[in-house]
C-alpha cells in the first residue's frame, strides 16, 4: 500500500481519525488537525466521504473532551502521576491552561478548541470549575461539530481549488488553519494570566 498516493490512503483515513483526535484531547502535539484536513483533501478528490470524515472527527472530539473533563471533575488527575509519561502529560495540561487561560465559560468551551492547546485547557479547567456535565457535554458537542466542519472544509476547499496532490492541499489547509489559530490565540492570551489552577506533579 503506497501511502504517498490518494488511492493508497483510501478508507484508511477513517481508521486514523478516531485515535488521533482522541489522543489530541490529552496531548495537543498529536496532529489531529492534519489528519482531518487530509481527510477533507481526499474528499475533494472523491476518495472518501466528507460527511463521514466530519462525523468521525466530531464524535472523537466530543469523547476526548468528555474524558478530560471527567478526569478533572472527579479529581482523578493524580492518577496520571503514577507513571513518568503521565507526569509529562500532567505538566503539559498545566502549561496549556496557563497559556490558554482559566476561563470555563460555555463560549470558551466551544471556541477555544480552535486555539492550539485550547481544547485541553478548557476541558480541564471546566472540570476543575465543576461546570455542569450536561452543559459541558452540549458545548463540547457543538464545538466538536464546528471544529470538524472547519477542518474538513479547509482540506476540501484547498483540494478543490488548487488541484494539487492531496498531500499538498493538506499542507496548505494545515498552514492556513495554524496561522488563524495562532492569531486568535495571541489575541486571547494577551488578556489571560500565566497561572493555572492545575496542581503540577510533585507540588504540595
Automatic annotation (TrEMBL):
Keywords associated with the record: Cell membrane, Membrane, Transmembrane, Transmembrane helix
InterPro entries with a match to the protein in the record: DedA_domain, VTT_dom
Main location group: membrane
Domain of life according to the entry: Bacteria
Location(s) in or outside the cell: Cell membrane
Coiled-coil region: none
Any Gene Ontology CC annotation: plasma membrane
Family, similarity comment: Belongs to the DedA family.
Protein name: VTT domain-containing protein
Organism (species): Arthrobacter cavernae
